Amino acid sequence: MKERVVLLRLLGVSLLWGFNYVASAYLLKDFSPIFLSYSRLVLTSLFLITVAVIGGKMKKPSRRSLLLLLFAGFFGTLLNQFFYFTGLQGSTAGNASLIIALSPVATIFLARLFLGETITVNKLVGSLLALIGVALIVLFGGKALGISHGDVYLLLAMLALSVSLLFIRQLSKIMASYDITILATVMGTVLMTPAAVMEGVQGHLHVSAHATMWIVLAAAAIFGQGLAGFWWNQGISQVGASTSSMFMNIPPFVAIVVAYFVLGDPIKPAQIAGGALILIGVYWANVRSVRPKSGAQSAGV
After folding, report:
1. Which of 33, 48, 80, 245 is least buried, going by the fewest C-beta atoms within 10 A?
2. What's the pTM value of the predicted model, to 2 decimals?
3. DSSP notation for 137-188
């Protein structure tokens, strides 16, 4: 595939993920958070399974791979999605996108703690900048001055995503990113089923009766998660992780601008300043380091 096509698809991924934050906030107006997360994952899983059946490329995972996939699905899908949608109720789409953008930096420290990877000076400087950026957003970029409960949940969502990336990093050594994307998403969806049932049993379930909401939900699941996930992993395999990572500077600012026009969320100086520090920090910590081409990454939220 021509490099220009791959780069255009990576740009499309960054735009889709930026819009996805706003779509999630919009859908929460008419859906309860767990049901919204679960239904979106079900639609994404059905899309991925369909692609797998048509493509016929999947290989049977080993027992070790299944265990790693289970943990990747638990952290990257169940916990990440639960904390993400719960947090989004008390925060903004812009804040969510910027806090989740800290995930690559958090993964650096988790990799050092659990995998013994070296932390270079570049990574330390980049991490410090990114952490200062998050502090600005959490303290001054919310609906009110101070730390909101929504931002705390979003930080937990970011940490859950970062932990899942450690398992995906190990899986990428023994499995194709194509298989990881499909199986981790499907397993995470299955793990979320009891939580969705419990929400209904407790009487907290709310489902929209408007067709427009369901259309937005289906589009977010199929395009914002499923298709974007495939394009992202394809981009990494074609042009490398460093080039692909550059496109991750785009989604937070797409989310802030779109949320301003669609949801009426104000654009605060703390979001711009904090977002700039996060993205500079992520760039400094990751892109400046020599990184090999790797396997699957998160398919976004």
Report:
1. 245
2. 0.84
3. HHHHSSSSSS--HHHHHHHHHHHHHHHHHHHHHHHTTTS-HHHHHHHHHHHH
For each of the chain's 301 residues, which pLDDT tens digit applies? Answer: 677 888 888 889 989 999 999 999 999 999 999 999 999 999 999 999 998 888 777 788 888 899 999 999 999 888 999 999 999 988 888 888 888 888 877 888 888 888 787 878 888 888 888 888 888 877 776 555 556 788 899 999 999 998 998 888 888 888 887 788 889 899 999 999 999 999 999 988 999 999 999 999 999 999 999 898 888 877 776 776 656 666 777 888 888 889 999 988 888 888 888 888 888 887 787 655 444 444 454 545 6
> Is 276 exposed, middle or buried, given 0-12, 13-18 or 19+ CB atoms closer than 10 A?
middle
